Amino acid sequence: MCLSVILSPLSLNKVERLAMLLKKSKHLVVFTGAGISTSCGIPDFRGPKGIWTLQREGKALPEASLPFHRAMPSLTHMALVELERAGILKFVISQNVDGLHLRSGIPREKLAELHGNSFMETCSSCGIEYLRDFEVETIGLKETSRRCSDNKCGARLKDTVLDWEDALPKKEMNLAEKHCRMADVVLCLGTSLQITPACNLPLKSLRGGGKIVIVNLQKTPKDKKASLVIHGLVDKVILGAMDVLNMQIPPFVRIDLFQIILTEALSIDKKYVNWTLRVASVHGQKAPLPFIKSVEVSFLDSQDYKAAILDKEPFQLKRRTLQTKSFEMVLKFNFSDGCGCSSTEINIPIDFQVPADCFRLDRDAIFQKLRETAIQDSCCGQNAVIEKKTILSPNSEVTVYAIITNIVRYNKTSKSTEADSLSNGDVKRRIDRENGTETSRKRSKGRKRKSKF
């Protein structure tokens, strides 16, 4: 790709300087704000089409085109993942609550989410964190409807998103301060650097001789402290830097989980089995399953069994079968808006006279194989069983599935950054992708606490 096609000579020179700073850095820290997620369809605050800008001008806020929970990482999110894998990026500090750094693949131990995560719950008793596939229903560090799944704990969980009056979490702030002091380069991306005390964190690198680089559409109060300032779209600048470094931006593959629960009970005369099929969230049977719109149930032996469509949660089907009868069900999962394919099918053989095999496979290995297959096939819907277990009361067999629901590719073409005339709130992700249109949605303000993940 010819960078001069998408960057002016002045900007090109600055992008090359940025690339060299990244390459030579020993301890790179990235500090991100809302501008890193605008190309994901999530509005920023102070940009030309930002939430506060539109409110001040008396204009209507943009309508969400897709649910918040289906937002996909931007080109910049995935570039940071590649920089981390290459050993260049040491730590990320985020003011965003969209959870996209974690979803993109930044390790939890290398991330401080100062304002929280809309998809994270935490146990204030034992410290376990739970990353959800649905938006947690509360903000302000309030108790949610779920409890810690640790058998030794069971305490009520809390959301992690700050409200306006909440102080920044000490643990996250301490980590952020530590890494800023160690940093020889702090790269600020898509942030106006106006919200205190977070905006002062990059300045802590200066005492140790570190440099600050700012990439943002508008000027910031910290521009004079920076060694390099680039006013432009973050995706466009980062794409240029990655090109200079000759580094590829990896595709994003989203994997979602669900469980199929088959509960059975013998009739009084022991001739029949009364059974219930339920498709449920792995986060609890009462938790929402937002990426599945409906489930169509059919049977290969269609003469004996009636098909059904489960179109609202809980996705549940009850039937009665001869105990000696084996059969095979076909479940067609119809996915919600924002998923990369409309549906996929899973065949499930049923034999109530054969005891279930229980196992737990290597989740990371299965995830990696699914990702590789999805990238190779350039399509979604691939799935695999990762766990099977039995429950004695009520007598149930639980099977946990992993399924590919999105693939996003970030091609190095001039079209992928064709956004010179567009403001942050308008920018659509110019990428070759298999998952349709963009998402748009916004949160008031947030922040987070942390523990183990």
From TrEMBL:
Q: What class of enzyme is it?
A: transferase
List the residue ranges of the region (Disordered). Answer: 416-453
Q: Where is the composition biased (Basic residues)?
A: 442-453
Active site positions, chain numbering: H115
Q: Basic and acidic residues bias: where?
A: 426-441
**InterPro entries noted in UniProt:** DHS-like_NAD/FAD-binding_dom, NAD-dep_sirtuin_deacylases, Sirtuin, Ssirtuin_cat_dom, YEAST_sf
Q: What is its EC number?
A: 2.3.1.286
Q: Which GO terms describe its biological process?
A: negative regulation of transcription by RNA polymerase II
Per the record's keyword annotation, is Zinc included, yes or no? yes
Q: Which UniProt keywords apply?
A: Metal-binding, NAD, Transferase, Zinc
- Residues in Deacetylase sirtuin-type domain copies: 8-248
Gene Ontology CC, one term: nucleus
Q: Which SUPFAM superfamilies does the protein's record reference?
A: DHS-like NAD/FAD-binding domain
Q: Which GO terms describe its molecular function?
A: histone deacetylase activity, NAD-dependent; metal ion binding; NAD+ binding; transcription corepressor activity
Which Pfam families does UniProt cross-reference here? Answer: SIR2
Residue sites binding Zn(2+) per the record: C123, C126, C148, C153
Q: Which family does it belong to?
A: Belongs to the sirtuin family. Class IV subfamily.
The name of this protein is: protein acetyllysine N-acetyltransferase
Q: Please report the organism this UniProt entry assigns to the protein.
A: Ziziphus jujuba
